[in-house]
Design brief:
Chain B: This is Cytochrome C. The complex is a heterodimer of chains A (about 210) and B (about 325). By secondary structure, chain A is mainly α. Chain A has two domains: about 80 residues, Cytochrome c-like domain (Cytochrome Bc1 Complex, Chain D, domain 2, Orthogonal Bundle); about 90 residues, Cytochrome Bc1 Complex, Chain D, domain 2, CATH 1.10.760. Chain A has eleven helices and no strands. The relative contact order of chain A is 0.15. The N terminus of chain A is likely disordered. Chain B has about 325 residues and is mainly alpha-helical. A two-stranded antiparallel sheet of chain B has the order 1-2. In chain B, strands 3-4 form a two-stranded antiparallel ribbon. In chain B, helix 3 crosses helix 8 and helix 9 packs across helix 12. The longest helix of chain B is centred in the C-terminal third of the chain and has 21 residues. Classes of the chains: A mainly alpha (about 210), B mainly alpha (about 325).
Chain lengths: ~210, ~325
């Protein structure tokens, strides 16, 4: 990982930006012990990394963000990289990083060259679902624009396809179990691999809202 | 590979339903992808049910334009028929999957049952006057005129969804489920508990719904932006039927009969907009229009007592008279 060079670069950017907006908290830019600087993977702007599967964090509702860190700590959600990072975060780190990322713009994912027919199929699933197979529309729970319904329903529009695929698979296989009332697991269980790839491809093409989460 | 299976199901479906199979069988995923062992939803979709045409089949002509406008009004009433709506609801909030879902009072099953005599209005209702009722009660609004652009588009959408369905036949999936009376008398306190554990995440701690960027993402269940006291959903039995088949959203069929009744009673024990038929006093309006399973002008104890009385009277009457829904030309939908 070229995180060191990237961090230096980030650091310069942060200094340039900090004259205009409030500086991001140091947990994001510097990290703290085992909590590696969030920016090295998620960016200061929360745009993540499409190739590496590091998720977009921009505009996650702070309550949902804090819940995910708590779930990593509790083990109801596990990941070899994020679990140790979450374990090392204090309540204050969680609060300040959540607040910072919630206020960032959420552009579409940059790596989205997928077949238009696949995208059309994904779009149909997101908007209409497939009730004959017990799949409700994604956009009923994640809002008509896919940008989420705070506090419990995160934005999914603009997310990197690789990350969306990994989460849907994780619910389907039972590796991720932290969703309230099994709402998301129930959806994922009825999705085919084809559904998962097309809906993830479509979602990556969305997400253009400029300003922070309300 | 899958085709023969589709046709076999279709052939079975023909018992009673003529024309429902004129179209090709459902896409192969229907039979293949549903993981039989793990499917968490208890309400299995009966393959014998009528299937409305797919949205992609809307014709690309003037007729198709009216179908599409009707669909838009139905799904996003707030935007496409704003002037006729007095609350925060859209038609599709109670008729899921854009009016297609079985056990969610689907439009294809409704269309073929009108004109019909309805006890609520005491007259022959056409599909148009039925839709006007929805605006007056469920949408707490002002009905569009019979010859308005909105009414024409809505009727066209209903008609198109019913393509190939036989008229005058109560199709499986029509209306809402009738949930059997639970073992224990429905109770508000238990209902509150069901609500907090299963519903509040979407409908809010106070039934107020949740908005995202100015629009309701999850509709309100009571209060000023919800359906009024004249709407069918204010009846406890009707609400229990809707809820058990369709709620929590995405988890239809998971609540027990008892939970469905308890939470329906809890939901309908709250304030909501006045019945537009209100005249004189609540007691007078109740006596005139609310001889039914509801909490309009009654305490839960009074409701329980009145239901017991009705049940006794009902068993005597049932022996001599067929249930309204068995009578030709009677709408099985009791109220709206």
């Amino acid at each position: 990982m070229r995180s060191a060079t990237r961090l230096i670069f980030m650091g310069t950017m942060v200094m340039a930006a900090s004259t205009a907006a409030a500086a991001p908290p140091s947990i994001i830019t510097q990290g703290k012990g085992a909590a590696i600087a969030c920016a090295s993977c998620h960016g200061v702007d929360g745009a993540g990394n499409a190739q590496a599967g590091f998720p977009v964090l921009a505009q996650l509702p702070p309550a949902h963000f804090a819940k995910q860190i708590a779930d990593f700590k509790a083990g109801t959600r596990t990941h070899p990289i994020m679990t140790p990072i979450a374990m090392a975060m204090s309540a204050e780190d969680i609060e300040s990083s959540a607040r910072h990322y919630a206020s960032q713009a959420r552009p579409k994912s940059e790596a989205t060259t997928v077949d238009p027919a696949v995208i059309a199929r994904g779009k149909n699933l997101a908007i209409n679902g497939a009730w004959d197979r017990h799949v409700p529309p994604c956009f009923k729970c994640h809002a008509v624009d896919g940008l989420g319904v705070a506090p419990a329903f995160p934005p999914i529009a603009g997310q990197h396809a690789a990350y969306t695929v990994s989460q849907l698979q994780a619910w389907k296989t039972g590796a991720r179990t932290n969703d309230p009332q099994k709402l998301m697991k129930t959806v994922a269980e009825n999705l085919t691999d084809d559904d998962i790839h097309s809906v993830a491809g479509y979602l990556a093409t969305l997400g253009t809202r400029e300003k922070g989460n309300e | 590979m899958n085709k023969p299976i589709g046709y076999v199901l279709c052939a079975l479906a023909l018992g009673g339903i003529v024309g429902g199979c004129g179209k090709p069988p459902p896409p192969p995923e229907t039979t293949e992808a549903a993981p039989a062992a793990t499917a968490p939803v208890a309400v299995a979709v009966d393959p014998a049910r009528f299937t409305p045409p797919a949205e992609s089949e809307i014709p690309k002509n003037e007729f198709g334009e009216a179908v599409l406008l009707g669909k838009n009004i139905f799904v996003n009433t707030q935007q496409y028929a704003k002037g006729f709506v007095g609350n925060g609801m859209n038609c599709a909030n109670c008729h899921l999957d854009n009016g297609r879902k079985a056990d969610s009072a689907p439009l294809w099953a409704a269309y073929v049952l009108y004109p019909a005599y309805r006890q609520k209005t005491g007259q022959i209702d056409t599909i148009q006057s039925r839709i006007q009722g929805c605006f007056l009660y469920s949408m707490n609004g002002k009905p569009p005129a019979l010859d308005s652009k909105e009414m024409t588009a809505l009727v066209t959408y209903h008609y198109w969804l019913a393509k190939g369905a036989p008229t005058g036949v109560k199709l499986p999936g029509q209306g809402y489920l009738k949930v059997p009376k639970p073992a224990q008398k429905p109770e508000i306190a238990r209902g509150r508990n069901v609500y907090e554990n299963n519903c509040a995440i979407c409908h809010g701690a106070n039934g107020e719904g949740i908005k995202a960027r100015g629009e309701y993402a999850f509709p309100p269940l009571w209060g000023k932006d919800s359906f009024n006291w004249g709407a069918g959903m204010h009846r406890v039995d009707t609400a229990a039927g809707f809820i058990q088949a369709n709620m929590p959203y995405g988890l239809g069929g998971t609540l027990s009969d008892q939970e469905a009744w308890d939470v329906a009673l809890f939901m309908n024990s709250h304030e909501r907009p006045q019945d537009p038929r209100f005249s004189g006093s609540v007691a007078q309006t109740r006596d005139k229009h609310h001889d039914e399973n509801c909490l309009y002008g009654r305490t839960p104890e009074e409701l329980a007592a009145s239901l017991e009385k009705q049940a006794e009277a009902g068993t005597a009457a049932e022996k001599t008279k067929p249930a309204p829904e068995q009578l030709e030309g009677y709408s099985p939908a009791i109220s709206h």
